[in-house]
């Protein structure tokens, strides 16, 4: 079958027209894929920044296709485990170490499969699973966002962040964001946010505070030295949920701010099967349509990765398969 296969950190991944279809594990079923979406995770794997890398593995976590004649989406997480609070040590995600979705057929546990939301086409639906699940858990399960609360979602142009924004607006929250370009800022404002500031500036947090005041919840995936600014923008009793560390470690957060304002700092990763089910229901109920930036054929995988790395993208990058 046609597949994008990881070789090594040095060689990256190659498009192979004749990759031998992997065996279907016990209790798994095979889905014929129509489209698959990229995530930052795929880029981190290509750069060797992901644990447990193995050669000859089909990349890709997100996809949409056909199972027993029906259009389906599926949870890319395997073996979440019993607890709703955190994943088991056996938890892993399609596309490393298990074969993923940048190919014609993928195997998943039957229980991971859901009907494709009817209001989405295959391309839109393929963009939903990983980023939608991460956003849903970060906002609602971990962040406990309530209607009317003020939420600041940093880096609003990203795949997960845009789902956070769409979900938060649909839930009745007052939504704010930061972003890295004026073009993205105007696109975000058209989506119904109450305020957006450009994070490329020494005093963006002061500007934000002056214009919009403190917020009840922050959702962040950048981390790095700017994280303390987000912590400082929280109301007393507020919550910061982090689901990523794109800019690395954060050494300059003041414990005084955390304890005096009685803040909650929480981590969030992917989501439980219950989160996935709730996310799909929420997307159907609110007719959420994923923001798709560009679409490439599977054979143009390298162009799709270049687009992801350009930082110019706004939303998800999708590969069409058949
Ligand atoms: N824990 C999990 O389960 C999980 C799941 C998915 C993703 N993640 C992590 O979340 C991060 C984003 O993933 P993605 O797939 O959404 O990536 P993506 O679509 O490539 O988006 C990149 C994001 O980084 C933001 N960004 C870049 N520089 C920034 C800065 N200086 N300050 C604030 N934001 C900045 C971008 O904001 P603008 O475009 O607005 O500039 C954009 O939101 C990655 O670190 C990824 O590994 C974690």
Give the percentage of residues in beta strands.
Answer: 25-35%
| Poorly predicted regions | none
CATH class of the largest domain: Alpha Beta
**Overall CATH architecture of the largest domain:** Alpha-Beta Complex
Number of self-contained structural domains: 2
- In the CATH hierarchy, what is the superfamily of the largest domain? Medium-chain alcohol dehydrogenases, catalytic domain
Any ligands, ions or cofactors bound here, and which? NADP nicotinamide-adenine-dinucleotide phosphate
**Secondary structural class:** alpha/beta
Quick one: biggest sheet? 7 strands, mixed
What coarse outline follows from CA principal-axis ratios? globular
Annotation, overall tally of beta strands:
19
CATH fold assignment of the largest domain: Quinone Oxidoreductase, Chain A, domain 1
Helix content: 25-40%
| Average residue-wise pLDDT | 97
Structural Rg: 19 Å
Distance between the termini: 11 Å
Q: N-to-C SSE series?
A: EEEHEEEEEEEEHHEHEHEHEHEHEHEHE
Count every helix, treating DSSP H or I runs of 4 or more residues as helices. 10
Report on the architecture of this protein.
The chain is of the alpha/beta class and 322 residues long. The protein folds into 2 domains: 3-128 and 290-320, Alpha-Beta Complex (Quinone Oxidoreductase, Chain A, domain 1), CATH 3.90.180.10; 134-267, Rossmann fold, CATH 3.40.50.720. 28% of the residues lie in helices and 29% in strands. It contains 10 helices and 19 strands. The chain has helices at residues 40-46, 122-126, 129-142, 159-170, 182-190, 204-212, 227-232, 255-260, 273-285, 301-310, and strands spanning 3-8, 12-16, 28-37, 57-58, 62-67, 70-74, 77-78, 92-94, 97-98, 105-109, 113-115, 150-153, 174-179, 195-198, 215-220, 234-242, 264-267, 292-297, 316-320. The strands form 4 sheets. Strands 3, 5, 6, 10, 11, 18 and 19 form a 7-stranded mixed beta sheet that branches. Strands 14-13-12-15-16-17 form a 6-stranded parallel beta sheet, with helices on both faces. Strand 1 and strand 2 form a beta hairpin. Helix 3 (129-142) packs across helix 4 and helix 3 (129-142) packs across helix 9. The model has no long low-confidence stretch (mean pLDDT 97). The protein binds NADP nicotinamide-adenine-dinucleotide phosphate. NADP nicotinamide-adenine-dinucleotide phosphate is lined by residues 39-41, 44, 131, 134, 154-161, 178-180, 184, 199, 221-222, 226, 243-247, 269-270, 308.
């Amino acid at each position: 079958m046609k597949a994008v296969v990881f070789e090594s950190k040095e060689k990256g991944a190659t498009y192979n027209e004749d990759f031998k279809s992997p065996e279907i594990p016990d209790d798994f079923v095979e889905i014929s894929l129509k489209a698959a979406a990229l995530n930052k995770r795929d880029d981190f794997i290509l750069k060797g920044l992901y644990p447990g890398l193995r050669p000859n593995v089909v990349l890709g976590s997100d996809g949409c296709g056909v199972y027993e004649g029906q259009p389906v989406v599926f949870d890319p997480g395997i073996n979440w485990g019993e607890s709703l609070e955190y994943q088991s040590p056996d938890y892993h995600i399609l596309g490393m170490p298990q074969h993923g979705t940048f190919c014609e057929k993928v195997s998943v546990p039957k229980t991971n499969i859901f009907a494709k939301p009817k209001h989405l086409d295959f391309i839109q639906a393929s963009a939903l699973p990983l980023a939608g699940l991460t956003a849903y858990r970060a906002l609602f399960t971990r962040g406990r966002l309530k209607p009317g609360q003020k939420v600041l979602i940093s880096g609003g142009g990203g795949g997960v962040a845009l789902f956070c924004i769409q979900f938060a607006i649909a839930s009745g929250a007052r939504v704010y964001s930061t972003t890295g370009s004026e073009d993205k800022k105007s696109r975000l404002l058209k989506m119904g946010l109450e305020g957006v500031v450009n994070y490329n500036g020494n005093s963006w947090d002061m500007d934000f505070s002056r214009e919009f005041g403190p917020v009840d919840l922050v959702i962040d995936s950048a981390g790095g030295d700017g994280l303390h600014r987000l912590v400082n923008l929280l109301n007393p009793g507020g919550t910061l949920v982090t689901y990523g560390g794109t800019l690395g470690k954060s050494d300059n957060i003041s414990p005084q701010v955390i304890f005096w304002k009685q803040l909650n700092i929480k981590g969030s990763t992917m989501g439980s099967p219950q989160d996935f089910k709730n996310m799909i229901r929420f997307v159907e109920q609110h007719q959420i349509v994923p923001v798709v930036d560009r679409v490439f054929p599977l054979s143009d995988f390298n162009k799709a990765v270049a687009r992801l790395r350009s930082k110019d993208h706004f939303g998800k990058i999708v590969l069409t398969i058949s």
